[in-house]
């Protein structure tokens, strides 16, 4: 069983209430081989919700209290992001997935890249809050982009 970001398997879970459907991951879900998780929804945030970025660091820094997750309007949503990460960890512990595949660039799900906190579309190296927490507890997390690269041809929906 795989644990997969909800937006990647076709659920309209993003802050804009859109999806990031990835056809191979949708197929996995339809064949009963994937369980969807959306940390931001499980953290108590609505859909749609305000755009947010990690300010002052990455997901590791958020967990250590050195950085915050802020909306573009200046609301501090750090506690919701941490709660979402903790809820995702609970599910991972129950499911014991063979693989966890999360959406790159997200302040929760980002694996190698996140936005830099300026809300200008700039990416920096680092993981989101959920990925950081899962890794701290021994889980291996790959991004949708890494999954795609490992599984062959590029998905036409990958960068929509
Ligand atoms: S928190 Fe993760 S699963 Fe939820 S919409 Fe954002 S990237 Fe997708």
Outline of the structure:
The protein has 160 residues and is an alpha/beta fold.
Task: Indicate the topology.
Layout: E1 2-5, H1 23-30, E2 34-37, H2 39-42, E3 52-55, H3 59-63, E4 68-71, H4 78-95, E5 99-102, E6 113-115, E7 123-125, H5 129-136, E8 141-143, H6 144-151
Helix pairs in contact: 4-5
What does this structure look like?
This protein is of the alpha/beta class and 160 residues long. It has 6 helices and 8 strands, in the order βαβαβαβαβββαβα. It has one domain (2-151). The strands form 3 sheets. A 4-stranded parallel β-sheet has the order 2-1-5-8, with helices on both faces. A two-stranded antiparallel sheet has the order 3-4. Helix 4 packs across helix 5 (129-136).
Mean pLDDT: 95
Please bin the fraction of helical residues.
Answer: 25-40%
Q: Give the beta-strand count.
A: 8
How far from one another are the termini?
A: 26 Å
Number of helices: 6
Bound molecules: iron/sulfur cluster
Order of helices and strands: EHEHEHEHEEEHEH
Largest pleated sheet: 4 strands, parallel
% residues in beta strands: 15-25%
- How many structural domains can be distinguished in the coordinates? 1
List the uncertain runs.
155-160
* Radius of gyration, whole Å: 14 Å
* Sheet with most strands: strand arrangement: 2-1-5-8
Q: Would you tell me the structural class of the helices and strands?
A: alpha/beta
The gross shape turns out to be globular
């Amino acid at each position: 069983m795989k644990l997969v970001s909800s937006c990647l398997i076709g659920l309209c879970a993003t802050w804009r209430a859109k999806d990031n459907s990835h056809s191979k991951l949708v197929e996995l879900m339809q064949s009963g081989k994937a369980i969807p998780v959306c940390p931001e929804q499980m953290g108590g945030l609505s859909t749609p919700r305000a755009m947010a970025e990690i300010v002052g660091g990455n997901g590791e820094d958020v967990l250590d209290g050195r950085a915050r997750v802020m909306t573009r309007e200046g609301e501090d949503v750090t506690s919701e992001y941490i709660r979402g990460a903790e809820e995702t960890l609970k599910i991972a512990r129950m499911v014991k997935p063979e693989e966890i595949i999360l959406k790159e660039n997200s302040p929760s799900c980002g694996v190698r890249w996140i936005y830099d906190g300026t809300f200008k579309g700039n990416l920096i190296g680092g993981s989101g809050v959920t990925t950081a927490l899962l890794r701290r507890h021994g889980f291996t997390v790959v991004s949708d982009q890494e999954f795609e690269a490992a599984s062959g041809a590029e998905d036409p929906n990958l960068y929509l």
